[in-house]
Amino acid sequence: MSSSVSPAEPAKGSPQSLRGLLPFLRPYRGRIALAVLFLVLAAAATLAFPLALRSLIDNGLIRGDANMDAGSRLMQLRTHFFELFAVAAALGLFSAGRFYVVSWLGERVTADLRNAVYAHVVQQSPEFFETTQTGEVLSRLTGDTTLVQTVVGSSLSMGLRNLVMGVGALGMLVWTNPYVMTQVLGILVLVVLPSVWFGRRVRKLSRASQDRVADSSAIAAEVLNAIPVVQSYAAEGREATRFSASTQSAFHTAVRRTKARAVLVAFIIIATSAALLWGLFQGTQAVMRGDITAGHLSQTIVYVIILASATAVLGEIYGDLLRAAGASERLMELLHNRSPISSPAQPVQAPARTAGSRVQIQALGFHYPSRPGQAALSDFSLDVAPGETVALVGASGAGKSTVFQLLLRFYDQGSGQILLDGVPTRDLALADLRERIGLVPQDPVLFSTSARENIRYGRPEASDAEVEAAARAAFAHDFISALPQGYDSFLGERGVRLSGGQRQRIAIARAMLKNAPLLLLDEATSALDAESERMVQAALESAMQGRTTLVIAHRLATVQQADRIVVLEQGRIVEQGTHAALVAAGGTYARLAAMQFTQ
Fold first, then answer.
1. Ranked by mean pLDDT, which of 74-83, 89-98, 247-256, 268-277 comes out on top?
2. pLDDT per residue over 277-302, tens digit each?
3. If you ran DSSP here, which 8-state letter would residue 490 be given?
4. Is residue 419 pLDDT above 90, yes or no?
5. Which candidate, 436, 421, 427, places its Cα nearest to that of 342?
6. What domains, with CATH codes, occur in the chain?
7. Which of 4, 137, 250, 417 could pair covalently with 338 via S-S, beta carbons 3.0-4.6 A apart?
8. pTM of the model
9. Rounded CA gap, 332 and 60, in Å?
10. Residue 411 phi/psi, 5° resolution?
């Protein structure tokens, strides 16, 4: 996998990885400012509570006027309690506002992040998916984004709120008891150093834990997509054991992470509480000496509680931030991955569409990235005239499918060039190139939607009448009409509710509806029974009229009428001509034909 990471990016594994979320937060600066305002106001209300409590004790209980009657003293007390209630009401309102705005931000940023990662992944070339398992990508889209949501929508806000309250409480304590709290502050600084060391270990274990979870997701996705094969080999037990071993590994890594995080939280709480209790002890002695009032001591106690609870919450939130940093790293890795296949910065204007495109392949050389030592194509040249039908035949691994993948620019050739209607394919925008090509793969791909939408996939704007016409041409109309809801029938994941031949005919109808000037047929009739094959073959021959068509075929009976047959061996063209001419030549094609037609 190739990736492009800027020098300004934080080092891998750093908590600064959360900076990668900044581009997703910037569009919502207004809401962030509103959330910060609510956060500061809620923290201020919390810090005002001890002041109101001190006023209640010193002015309402202890220093009340001796000449004041009981009723007046009660009214004075009520005033102080109303002040306390006003502070509590303000705290509730500001906290509710902060909770709503921050939760909205968490949901919105997470949705934007998921959309960005998904949109980026679907643009990657097949090279990316040669080295990255689909289950791992799904794990990042779900598990990692959920961690980010927890931080943006909850933990970060709580952390900032407790940080403001902790700093404010500490400032009030230093202001009211400067000598004692300066000592305490010095002790708190010593607490930070080992906390940082513990935090680094928690972060590394968090990243490892998320990687193990992704491994489990990859195994599950692979097996569930191949469940008929798994069950046909009675391998359910083996696959369950393999998945269990993966989840057990994830569990052990998570336990190690949790132990490290528990030690971190315990250390922060115990060390901080010890320092604050020392300050409280000094304050109690000051009351006994008459240096401060009882209300002052009560205020100090509340501020100590606020500072201690804020520190405890920050200790736990720090662990959440470290986990989210690992998740953010993994998501940013996906977003920073650059596909080697992309549209040129200034694409050439695509020529006007005609009924059939001209394809010129000149001295093509290509190695798959995963097999750099083995040439898939060598000095491959082919000129296909508009409207010509050319069949590519040869043994498996001869390079037939590679030609299709290079035409579609799933990969770029190492040498030579491909021209479509006289324009190098590398100079065309990917959308323009692929819009001019229709593909019917050997293994038809259907989506979890209706038959109508599956056929319409190549041309989303097509009308229902056009969809039905394409289905009739592919001999799919009758069996689609017989489905419970006809064209609106749900076909199941990967079209599991249809037979192989039915899936293939829907794929053919999809290509027909697209009506591209270049048609690529990769064993398009391989999954059909004899009767369906005859019908679809006739439909394909009709669709190929006037249209440039490249056909990959292992069954030579399906390509005997091709204008030209090209025989490949080990990535090179060894023969080409009509069926009759190649049989008469007595070469590779004649040998293949003899094996098939004499069986």
1. 89-98
2. 776 677 677 767 777 666 666 767 77
3. B
4. yes
5. 427
6. 20-336 (1.20.1560.10), 359-597 (3.40.50.300)
7. 4
8. 0.69
9. 58
10. -135, 165
